[in-house]
Amino acid sequence: MAPAPRPRRWRPQRRDVAVYGAFLLTALWVTSRIWADPAGRVASLYSSDPAQVQFFLAHSVRVVLHGEFPFYTDQFNYPDGVNLMANTAILALGIPMVPVTLLFGPAVSFVTLVTLGLAGTAAAWYHVLSRRVLRTRSAAVVAGWFCGFSPAMLSHASWHPNIISQFLLPFVVWRVLVLTRSRRPLRDGALLALLVTAQAFINEEILLFAALGCAVFLLAVVVQRPALWAQAWRPLGIGLAVCTVLAGALLAYPLYVQFAGPMAYHGLSDAVRDYGNDIAAFVTPGSATLGGNARANANLAPNYSEENAFFGWSLSLIAVGIVVWLRRERLVRALAATGLFFAVLSLGERVSWWHQDLVAGPWELLVRLPLLDAVVPTRFGLITGVVVAVLLALAVDRVAALRVPDRRTRRTLTGAVLALALLPIAPTPLPVVPRPPVPEFITADRWREYVGPDQTLVPVPVPSMGNTHGMRWAAATNLDFKIPGGYFLAPRNANTGDPGKFGGRPSGLGGLLQQASRTGRAVRLDDRERRRSLDELRHWRAAIMVLPVGQPNAEPLRRTVEQVAGPGQRELDVWVWDVRALTDVPDPDAPRP
Fold first, then answer.
1. Which residue ranges make up each domain of the chain?
2. Using one digit for the tens of pLDDT, what is the confidence trace for 542-564?
3. Burial per residue of 240-277, b for 16 or more beta-carbon CB atoms within 10 angstroms, e otherwise
4. Bridge partners of 351?
5. What is the per-residue DSSP string for 93-139?
6. How many CA atoms lie within 13 A of 353 on its CB side?
7. Mean predicted confidence (pLDDT) in 176-201
8. Pair 338, 217: CB distance under 8 Å
9. Which pLDDT value is given to residue 583?
10. Model pTM?
11. Is the CB of residue 450 less than 8 Å from the CB of residue 472?
């Protein structure tokens, strides 16, 4: 009698492909509402960051096709321009996405980056942990899942693809750990330098977090076992020196532009410098999760795009329980110390509980130090999130290694604990709202009849932090025309080297139009305000002003503009004011003598 065939086992490669596919499907589901209409939908509550990212994606097209300078542009905030190195222009993401941006537009590129950022981060952590740290792939799946789809990642997904694109970080962290016992520190230091350079063009703040996290973790390990330092210091020192020299050479000029080039600034805007987590944020589910409640979270984070903790009660208690259970392991103690250290820093300058200030936080002592003065403290919670993911994975790994007679019971209990920890913060599709389309006047290239290469098209209202539709118009044309204003970080009053703030130098005309847009009432201008408005249009080298007919409060905006530029002309779906005669800007089609 022939023996019964054995059940087929999946090969490791097939299991990996299945895991990567599951991560990608989850990312597609999370972004599904944006995918339904990338150009016509945007994350609810805040629309400025997606428009800024789309502008940067269009800038990458100009870098590739026209050889434009990658680290600075005057295509917005004309004529002062914007220091792109100081504004996270995501060149390492935007340049590979150029074919997608050209074929389908920057809105599709944006949602593609969000989808790949979530899935890629989960896959990268799974890959490194499953091969280098954990014995079981199921434990690595848990860690990858949480690193890719934690409440903090979901919070940033709607607005910050540069922050959620953390797929290089597991490799950066692993290469640092490899250096502590490397036999070829020169080679390993060079590999680390290449990873560091690439990550610097995705997001420097996340790179800084990786460096700080590695430093605190290694310190926590050495404190427990000082003898390790005698073995590790030489290869680590050589490797880090090689990394510093090579990465420093590759990044020297970009960093020079960032810190000393045109429109460079030092330190963040006061508006975000004191962003910190509330203690209660660590035990509350995130807004974009199954158990989340956006209203309950309103005062626990600086805003909905900065929910950098929000683990929920069950996961927080289980994480503490894991530390207590595995407290004899040096690795677990080092991880716990690292996670707690950065959780405390993430509280910011004031420690609060349910929005009630308690005491001054330790960040108050660090906020003015070089490099740290450019950090948003609440984002230190991202490091704690990675620590929690690894602790969960270690617990699953250790449970799988237990020798118990009833494996089914063990698996059932493990699954139940994971469900209790992760189900309340399971991801849900990102909430979206409709946004106005780019005017046909722009997409049909009717603007080209008016605007020359060194002239600007002035959207009404003038682009600013709260109104970025004009930036989307420019991005839709791959920045073929310049605009004044915009949403970006720049030195105060455009004085290079000053502390940073959002937006360029104050604009009188921009403020008047913003007032009309906000209040729904036309602003009555006196002679002085008209003269100042015309001076600003001359400074911007304005060719036309454009107001969409469907713009909210379009009528009071139209009446306000008419006091400066006279009657407008209706073309397609916009009002157009040809102001070249008023600003002495020559007609680009006029015959030259």
1. 12-41+105-425, 440-583
2. 999 999 999 999 999 999 999 99
3. bebbeebbeebbeebbebbbebebbbbbbeeebbbbbb
4. 359
5. HHTTTHHHHHHH-HHHHHHHHHHHHHHHHHHHHHHHHHHHT-S-HHH
6. 2
7. 96
8. yes
9. 81
10. 0.93
11. no
